[in-house]
Amino acid sequence: MEQKQTINFGAGPAKLPQSVLLQAQKELINYSGIGISVLEMSHRSSDFNKILNTTENLLRELLNIPANYKVLFLQGGGSAQFSAVPFNLIGLKEDKCADYIVTGIWSSKAAKEAEKYGKINIVHPKQDSYTKIPDPSSWTLNPTASYVYYCCNETVHGVEYNFVPDTKGVVLVSDMSSNFLSRPVDVSKYGLIFAGAQKNVGCAGVTVVIVREDLLGHSLKECPIVLDYKVQAETNSLYNTPPCFSIYIMGLVLEWIKNNGATAAMEALNKQKSSLIYDIINASNGFYVCPVDMACQSRMNVPFRVGKKDGDEALEKKFLDGASKRGMISLKGHRSCGGIRASLYNAVTVDDARALAIYMKEFLKEHQ
Ligand code: PMP
Questions:
Q1: Is 13's C-beta closer than 6 angstroms to any atom of ligand 1?
Q2: Confidence (pLDDT) at 3
Q3: Distance CA 83, CA 115 (A)
């Protein structure tokens, strides 16, 4: 039974399962009877090694990660990976170029950062707004590119892929920061996947990188050593002090995911939760408007405007105030988009989503 009254729809850092918080609380001062906290533990101790290995093994099990992939636990967030990806992979081929599919702020930032290190080709015509995935038939992929990059779920805009881009054999790289472990993924289709933990799998501080072994060892000579995947792989993510506590929390969340039916169950729940919200939007006769193309509406982040297509800001403020009175927080849209955004990551329950859907219905009745 949930003890908290507040429902957190934040986009990240986001809600964690209550059982995870309770376990972390219980173990905080004296972890596993060893007399100290994980916060105080040497990252080279056998106790921390167990935590690191357990976390990695859970991840391997949940995603069925093939043996020829390395799993790294790094610092610097998704943003550090915007640099690490080109530093490590753009030199895979002589031309030092890479293809980017840009569907929102996060892939746009990644492409801009990569431009510092090589030739970046945006594969599709420029978009006026981030509300759809450009039709793959309009993509001009470069067969000599070192990799093709995309963001699987654009957290700000609520644009999510429900297909794996066909790169015609070129190495595929994906930022899965905001839909990681929210559904099954065939890792073998990717050269590299990265994800910050603070949305679906833990708290801020650790970013998971899953990388195919044969892609290691091609980094540019300027690559900072902490971002060099080969170095981090060879040292089991212990080249320097890793984010120990964040890795421990991730382990607890992965255990929770496993005990709750793994990725298939997460997918079913995430479908159910997001449908509760999209159904209200679709039946509202334009009172609520989600600008995203139906084919790529995100199950993780549902952005919408209230009152009219471009949003009635006074009404949106009223909506947020009313939500807050009911204990529903962090529903304000990203500053670049305005409006409302409900993030429905793994730890958000069907009851949480239902509470929002009920509120939306009532607000509609009152203000339409
Ligand atoms: N990629 C995506 C899809 C994100 O949502 C975010 C952060 N919200 C980032 C990258 C950047 O992550 P960080 O702030 O941890 O650097």
A1: no
A2: 62
A3: 10
Residues of the chain with pLDDT under 70: 1-4
pLDDT at 368: 87
- Calculate how far, in angstroms, residue 105's C-alpha sits from the geometric centre of ligand 1: 10
Is residue 174 a contact partner of residue 209, using CB atoms and an 8 Å limit? no
Instruction: Decide whether any atom of ligand 1 lies within 6 Å of the 151 Cβ.
Output: yes
* Residue 129 confidence (pLDDT): 93
Distance (angstroms) between ligand 1 centre and the Cα of 362 equals: 33
Given the DSSP bridges, would you call strands 159-160 and 153-154 parallel, antiparallel or unpaired? antiparallel
For 167-176, what is each residue's pLDDT tens digit?
999 999 999 9
Q: What is the pLDDT of residue 329?
A: 98
Strands 301-306 and 328-329 come out as: unpaired
Catalytic residues: 106, 175, 199
Q: State in Å: Cα 156 to ligand 1 middle.
A: 10
Q: Which atom of ligand 1 is nearest to the CA of 154?
A: 3
Distance CA 253, CA 273 (A): 19
Ligand 1 near 174 CB (within 6 A): no
Give the contacts of 133 (CB within 8 A, at least 6 positions apart). 101, 103, 159, 161, 293, 295, 296
* DSSP state letter for 351: H
DSSP string, 45-108: SHHHHHHHHHHHHHHHHHHT--TTEEEEEESSHHHHHHHHHHHHHGGGSTT-EEEE---SHHHH
CA-nearest residue, atom 10 of ligand 1: 78
